[in-house]
Amino acid sequence: MEFGFTEEQLMFRDTVYRFAKKEIAPLVEQADLKSEFSKEIWGKLGGMGLLGLPFPEELGGGGADVVTCCLSGEALGHAGVDQGHLLALGAHTYLCTDTLYKNGNDAQRKKYVPKLASGEWIGCMGLTEPGAGSDAGSLQTSAVKKGDKWVLNGSKTFITNAPVCDVCVVYATVDKKLKQNGITAFIVEKGFKGFSTGEPFHKMGVRASTTSEVFLDNCEVPDENLLGEVGKGMAYTHETLSWDRSALLAPFIGGMQFAIEECTKYSQERVQFEKPINSFQAIQHKLADLKIIKEAAKMAVYRVAHDKDTGKPLNHMHTSIAKAVVGDWGLKAASDAVQVFGGYGFIHDYPIERFLRDAKLAQIGGGTSEIQRFIISRILSMF
Fold it and tell me: What is the pLDDT of residues 112-151, one digit of tens each?
């Protein structure tokens, strides 16, 4: 398996890193402390072309492959950009816009993709419900055809970007008896009658991403905003898995590299018992573990990206391993990083405590670590 990067890809990664280090990283501390989504940061991401990276140039995108998208996300995390804004980017670009681009008709692509790719509009995906989290197929939001429109009723929760969204790809069922085969996708604009969002949640981590409930109260959606085919919605959510297990995880890998560098620097400067603490084996081993975990996670994530770029069928073993490694071992890496800093790792004066808070989400969002183990064990039992 070859994970070599082209010179052009590496140059792009380095460009993104330098840009983010200079233009975005200085802004993230206050956004995180205030739990505030920064339009300034969003504008910078859009201006750099990072919100439309995988889409064709004729639609305002960058025409990048999946590996390049991962390198971009990794570079942003490495530069110290908070995972809150990077989660907002992921939900916008890979869960909303890409679903619309892949499954929409020409008119829908021309109407929505350019504005989403530039960042003028913000997108989100409405799938999770209060009673349908890991079991997304049991969603209850309904869609009934009435004349030339669809009427949607139900609610969604934990929807990243919902309070600031202009467009939401909403999943609803046309017939609950059909179960997953009734799930259908719709393009819902924030101004549509019956669409509203709740107050933003106050979260433990990824604070700068704004997350809330979505309410659909006899929400009227024109028939022209049906996305793809009736009953194909669940298949569309499966298509996002390759993004969710690659480009959405890549920023966490960058965050691990950021932590490695911060911990290495601190351990060289911090003196105890008349020695820099990096002279003690306990600290040396934690730094080594950070590096091991980061490299293992990178291999797992880029394998998924490579599979997608080369047109291989979605490998659920590969995707679940990537998610579990980044989620579980990434959290261990974050905890170890705080331990290297000691008491200073527990206060806002250093960015390591944010790294720990943000890392927890990778165990939960987009499929819990327990679900990943269930999938892996089920596949193993088939052999």
Answer: 999 999 999 999 999 999 987 677 778 999 999 999 999 9
H and E: helices and strands count for the chain: 15, 10
Q: How far apart are CA 96 and CA 74, in angstroms?
A: 20
| Whole-number Å distance between alpha carbons of 225 and 191 | 13
Ranges of residues in the chain whose predicted pLDDT is under 50: none
Q: Residue 380 corresponds to which amino acid?
A: L
Rounded distance between C-alpha atoms, residue 337 and residue 253, angstroms: 14
Catalogue all structural domains in the chain, each as residue range(s) with its CATH number: 7-118 (1.10.540.10), 123-232 (2.40.110.10), 240-380 (1.20.140.10)
DSSP assignment of 204-224 equals SS-TTS-EEEEEEEEEEEEGG
Residue 215 contacts residue 195 (beta carbons within 8 Å)? yes
pTM of the full structure: 0.95
What is the predicted pLDDT for the residue at 382?
Answer: 85
Q: Look at the block and give the residue holding tokens 């989400």.
A: 361
What is the C-alpha separation between 66 and 319, in angstroms, rounded?
Answer: 14
> Rounded to 5 degrees, what angle do the CA atoms 139, 140, 146 make?
125
Both tokens assigned to 13: 């990664």
Q: How many CB atoms lie within 10 A of CB 354?
A: 24
Cα separation, 374 vs 329, in Å, equals 17
CB 85 within 8 A of CB 31: yes
Q: Is 37 helix (H, G, I), strand (E, B) or coil?
A: coil
- Would you say 373 and 324 are in contact if contact means Cβ atoms under 8 Å apart? yes
- What's the pLDDT tens digit per position in 35-54? 999 999 999 999 999 999 99
Helix axes 281-309, 330-341, angle to 10 degrees: 150
